[in-house]
Design brief:
The protein is an all-beta fold. It has no helices and eleven strands.
Length: about 120
């Protein structure tokens, strides 16, 4: 059974940091491109970052220099380190594997399936 389970969300003040984690199972993780996207209330879905099987990364302009995506293939895990958080980073964050379900023009990346998400709230 394919499964992606996110964790690590929460409430933080602007300027703070959070680290999101994602546990993957049910598919060959190490060879899969993986990414994060987010969706805030009343906002469109937005690709945040992805990392390929060679550990090459790509970021949306809105998070470049502040967020870092990483993966641990031994643990079938994906991470998103978020620093210098801004109010506009508040959203539900989803861990996703590559596929053909939704295309992010910002990342030029196709997302295939994703988990239930973890909520990030940034306050002033």
């Amino acid at each position: 059974q394919v499964q992606l389970v996110e964790s690590g969300g929460g409430s933080v003040q602007a300027g703070g940091s959070l680290r999101l984690s994602c546990a993957a199972s049910g598919f060959p993780y190490s060879s899969r491109f993986m990414g994060w996207f987010r969706q805030g209330p009343g906002k469109e879905r937005e690709g945040v970052a992805y990392i390929d099987s060679a550990y090459t990364t790509r970021y949306a302009e809105s998070v470049k220099g502040r967020f870092t995506i990483s993966r641990d293939n031994a643990k079938n895990s994906l991470y998103l380190q978020m620093n210098s958080l801004k109010l506009e980073d508040s959203a539900m964050y989803f861990c996703a594997a590559s596929g053909r379900t939704w295309y992010s023009p910002d990342l030029q990346f196709w997302f295939g399936f994703w988990g239930q998400g973890t909520q990030v709230n940034v306050s002033s």
